[in-house]
Amino acid sequence: MISRICGTLLSIDEDRVEISTPGGVVYEVEVPLTVAQRLPAPGDEIELRTVHLVREDLSALYGFIEPLERTLFSRLLNASGVGGKLALAMLSTYSGRRLVQIIAGRDIPALVQVSGIGKKKAEKIMLELADRLDDLQTLRVVSGDGTEEVKEGMAEAAVRALVALGMPFAEADGLVRAALKEGKADGPDELIRRALANR
Question: Which residues share a beta bridge with 58?
Fold first, then answer.
């Protein structure tokens, strides 16, 4: 079992990288887009946490930066009908933390934005995994007045409005999540303005 690969990053394609190890072996590792976008330039040293998937017709290495990403990928593979390709697509569409929120929160409209996932498959994935991701959820401090719930409601309203304007769901969701991090917003309209300004 190969659990980590350390070495020099030789090349980055859209969904795979090549890493040269000190022993002279070059590994090809498949990575989600959310990982590829955070890698250093070729020539730099890197370390990826890996999942080595071996089946009758397949032997592939999948690489991740954070422990959460690797753990989530492994759990996705335990869901019926989810293979390496689909699990990679899920983590290419959303960050690991966001994907945990989507599955644990049974957010079907968000999950069906992943290529290859329809409503029935989304429901099945959530049925099998929603209650098995508790340890991966980031602890959230919710104030007594329900501030966190209000923020989430504003975010959902802003995402719906951007989608209605023709923006792809995944892009709208990412922009709104980034807008939330900029500080307190008075309402969905302000989140929409921030999202469009950062586009």
Answer: 55
Alpha helices, DSSP H, located in 16-118: 33-36, 67-77, 84-93, 96-104, 108-111
Q: pTM for this one?
A: 0.75
Q: Tell me: pLDDT of 97 over 90.
A: no
Kindly list the structural domains of the chain, giving each domain's residue range(s) and its CATH number in brackets, ordered by start: 4-64 (2.40.50.140), 67-136 (1.10.150.20), 147-197 (1.10.8)
Residue range 141-153, pLDDT digits in tens: 333 444 555 566 7
CA pair distance 176, 34, nearest whole angstrom: 17
